[in-house]
Design goal:
three-stranded antiparallel beta sheet; about 180 residues; alpha+beta; Alpha-D-Glucose-1,6-Bisphosphate, Chain A, domain 4
Amino acid sequence: MALKPPTMFTQGAGFTFGGGAAGAGPPKIEHRIGIQAPVGVIWEILADIPGWESWNPLYPKAAGELHIGEALELTVAIPGEPHRRIEPVVFDWTPNDQIHWRLSLLGGLVQSVRYLELEVLGEANCIFSNGELFMGLLGPTVANSKRRAIRKGFTAMSEALAAKAEAAWRAGGGAPTSQA
């Protein structure tokens, strides 16, 4: 039996560029951080989109509400890049758990799914996952070329959320104020 040469297009699978392995999935950029505060304290800060302006270095201007199909109005400040206004659409959210939105740029050539997720570890401990999946014809190219800058932005947002939530919890009498 003769081997067939690899094809660039298969029905149902679309185009394949860059020799990506089957099942590898879209490129992902993510930052995860532990936060020492109850999930409710963290969620209250995260779900208040207009309040992001007071603490979030990645989204210095933010408007909108968490409703399925709602377009948020965000200014994204990726380190080393000019600020850019985006209007992602919320497609999923669960209180005390997750916010997911979609963004399409350049006529759909770059598409992404952004996720902000909380994983409860204990009564006053959570992991915050802050990431994005890149799709579309040019999505992987954008992810690879801007990976470091995007990750720096995600890290800054995660660290700012952790600082704000931990300070809010301490101020409410929930955590010791001294560090060991």
